[in-house]
C-alpha cells in the first residue's frame, strides 16, 4: 500500500520580482507592484508530502518528526524572515517567483528523502495563489 503523509510549515520572507538584464520599465510592465525596488513580503504556507510504502515494522511511511526536522533545517531556517533576493544564495541569479521558490525547496528536501519515496511540495504565496511541484 502506498500512502501519502504531509507536513505543513510556515515562513515569512521578502522578495522582489525582476530581471537584472531588463530595464525598470520592462520589469514594471511584467511584474507590476512585485517589482518594488524596496521589496515586499509574504506569509508563505508550505505543504510537503511524501508518498511511499508503509513500513510493516513501524506502521509509518516516514516518521513525521524526521520530515519536520528536514523542513525546519532546509526551509524555515534558511528562508524565514529573510530577503530571498539578498539572503538566500539560490536566488542570487534566479528570480524568486513562487514557481522558482517551490522548485528550490523541492530540490533541497529531495536530497534528504530516500529515493523510493515520491515528493510533492505545495507553496502558498497568498491564501489564493499557490504552486505545486512534484519533480521532473
TrEMBL record:
Enzyme class: lyase
UniProt signal peptide: none
Binding site for Zn(2+): 15, 40, 42
Record-level GO BP terms: tRNA queuosine(34) biosynthetic process
Key words of the record: Lyase, Metal-binding, Queuosine biosynthesis, Zinc
Family of the protein in this entry: Belongs to the PTPS family. QueD subfamily.
Higher taxonomy: Bacteria, Pseudomonadati, Bacteroidota, Flavobacteriia, Flavobacteriales
Organism of origin: Flavobacterium urumqiense
Record protein name field: 6-carboxy-5,6,7,8-tetrahydropterin synthase
Cofactor requirement: Zn(2+)
Amino acid at each position: 500500500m502506498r500512502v501519502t503523509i504531509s507536513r505543513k510549515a510556515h515562513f515569512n520572507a521578502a522578495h522582489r520580482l525582476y530581471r537584472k538584464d531588463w530595464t525598470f520599465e520592462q520589469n514594471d510592465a511584467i511584474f507590476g507592484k512585485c517589482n518594488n525596488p524596496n521589496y515586499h513580503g509574504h506569509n508563505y504556507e508550505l505543504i510537503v508530502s511524501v508518498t511511499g510504502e508503509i513500513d510493516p515494522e513501524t506502521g509509518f511511511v516516514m516518521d513525521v518528526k524526521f520530515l519536520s526536522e528536514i523542513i525546519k533545517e532546509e526551509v524555515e531556517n534558511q528562508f524565514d524572515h529573510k530577503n530571498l533576493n539578498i539572503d538566500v544564495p539560490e536566488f542570487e541569479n534566479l528570480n524568486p517567483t513562487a514557481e522558482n521558490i517551490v522548485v528550490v525547496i523541492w530540490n533541497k528536501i529531495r536530497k534528504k528523502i530516500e529515493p523510493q519515496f515520491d515528493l510533492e511540495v505545495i507553496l502558498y504565496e497568498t491564501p489564493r495563489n499557490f504552486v505545486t511541484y512534484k519533480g521532473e
